[in-house]
Amino acid sequence: MNVSGRPTRTIWPSADGTAVEIIDQTRLPHAFATARLATLDDAAHAIRAMLVRGAPLIGATAAWGLWLALRADASDAALDRACATLLATRPTAVNLRWALDRVRAHVSPLASAARAAAARRLAGAICDEDVALNRGIAAAGLPLLRAIAAKKQPGERVNVLTHCNAGWLATVDLGTATAPIYTAHDAGIPIHVWVDETRPRNQGASLTAWELLNHGVPHTVIVDNAGGHLMQRGLVDLVIVGTDRTTATGDVCNKIGTYLKALAARDNGVLFYAAVPSPSIDWTLRDGLREIPIEERAAREVTHLTGRLPDGTVAAVALTPEGSPAANPAFDVTPARLVTGLITERGVAEASAAGLRRLFPLV
Ligand code: MRU
User: Fold this and answer.
1) 130, 173, 237, 244: which one is catalytic?
2) What is the CA radius of gyration of the chain?
3) Domain containing 193: what range?
């Protein structure tokens, strides 16, 4: 997508070929800054501290991280250590494991001297593929938005609600949940997006809002608790969320609070879709509630809030009484029965084992 008129991805090899550059998402929306990853530890830190985040981008960063590791030491032992280090950064998004397995399988049979270059090429290919997958999701999701628009009065807007950031910042480019939204907007369909702020880290308020503003998509930021009320008033036509891990049976794990949106959508007859690129499907799992590891993040993300002060400095402020404990589960699981459909790069699948198998028979 464009930033200040320049086509920009979230991750790219540095011009001098010695490192990887990323958008530092901890600085948005108040500053657009990039960061340089030159070592395995830089890559692991960027994922852990959420300079990069979002399942597809976590996977892409891990792939680049293996290149950085193999450049320093291409032995089998170093490869094993690098995979273990990166895998331990964040537990929920399956794209991380998918990317590591893919690079490891590709470089393991090669002589040590050839491994780093091969990892570099594959990391670049994974990034390009991510963009292609998101284009597929855009093509699959656009007819859903067109169909809703066709039932409206001319000029009446299609209201989409989204949670967290499953936009281009969460991927290499274009986004998953936002791919149909950007495509519909660019095609002249009047779209308006309700943006859940998404406590505690506020990826909706800070990142999705920044993206949509940047691209000129009409949107309104709402508190996480407003979605159900808006649905009751008929102000939401459909919900589109992303996913960190979707089981082979169609259970959707995504940012904490997604499940409550799905419940409210079901109670109000509102369509509820997840945008699911195939690397986010965990074909080994059948029961999302029992089997998906849910990341527990620091209590400080709940007890404190970061924002810009009137003098322009960015600071953290305390919200809770000192001494009140806080819990911070970062993801939840929406059972397949509450999901209208899974928007994949191959089309919209019913959220079930049979629905996914119809589109992905050979995986
Ligand atoms: O904790 P985050 O910011 O990495 O969580 C991101 C999400 O939950 C996204 O919805 C998900 O990763 C899909 S991104 C296309």
Assistant:
1) 244
2) 20
3) 147-359
